[in-house]
Amino acid sequence: MTEGQFPYLHGFSPVEQARLKKQAEFLEQTIYKNVDFSRSKKVLEVGCGVGAQSEILLRRHPKINLTGIDLSDDQLKVAKESIGKLSFAKGRYEAIKANAEDLPFESGEYDGSFLCWVLEHVPSPSTVLSEVRRILRPGGKIVITEVMNSSFFLEPYSPNVWKYWMAFNDHQYEIGGDPFIGAKLGNLLLSAGFKEIDTKLKVFHFDNRQPDKRKEMIDFWSELLLSGADELVQAEKVDEKLVEEVRKELKNVSRDPNAVFHYTAMQATARK
After folding, report:
1. How far apart are CA 38 and CA 34, in angstroms?
2. Which residue among 41, 42, 155, 199 sits deepest, i.e. has the most Cβ atoms within 10 Å of its Cβ?
3. For 183-219, how does the pLDDT look when each residue is reduced to its tens digit (9 = 90+)?
């Protein structure tokens, strides 16, 4: 589904907007463990969506001023309304409609930039990174967190989930995204001219040692996977019968006493 220039497989419904907020909160402790903008004053968030990550950035870094950009009017409306209710964000946040491939800012205007689950959806990540580098001052910091969908693993074996997952990733490729871009961040940052590039794996691995967290993660991922079902059915990549089988298998995995879940994301930091 597309709103603006870049396609977004999950759509822009109120249900998806609520899922994005839940996702940010659910993954906060892992994603933000090493995110440090304490020495930054003016930070740009590329692809701010509904402001779910914006809220966390503003709360964790009380001295920054944050600008969020997105192409979706609906997402920006929610972001402005949500952040506008937060007393700690007063006077420190602006959300504007802008294209990440052609940023409407002066060169060197920002000293920090944050991207989370964004580059997987854009047709030209290298163009976005070049633009971000342009608007950063010398020494400015960029933090990117991205997907590596080949790392997804479930036990017990769930053939319909795997069939659906392959269709999910194939469709993302076909509409101009990259579901495996996390592994490529080092190369992309280097090509864009960034320095001091560092990459860290963000691993989510749960088995019988943490049964409650395992179930919570599997249930969370079930929502994530099925959030793309309408788009995939509409694009004739899957049918309703397969979606229903996926629901059943995910429910069985969630209840299985010996279930295993694994997913690894990539987080990269660099400086101009």
Report:
1. 11
2. 42
3. 999 999 999 999 999 999 999 999 999 999 999 999 9
Q: What is residue 196's three-state secondary structure? A: strand
Asked if 220 and 26 touch (Cβ cutoff 8 Å), the reply is: yes
What DSSP state is assigned to residue 182? G
Instruction: Put residue 228 in one of left, alpha, beta given phi > 0 → left and psi -120 to 50 → alpha.
Output: alpha
Rounded Cα distance between 90 and 240, Å, is: 45
pTM to 2 decimals? 0.92
CATH number at residue 155: 3.40.50.150
- Separation of alpha carbons 62 and 225, rounded Å: 34
> Which helix (H) or strand (E) covers residue 117, if one does?
none
**Cβ partners under 8 Å of residue 196, min gap 6:** 269, 270, 271
> 230 is in which domain, residue-wise?
14-271
pLDDT, average across residues 79-105: 96
**Mean pLDDT to the nearest integer, 228-255:** 96
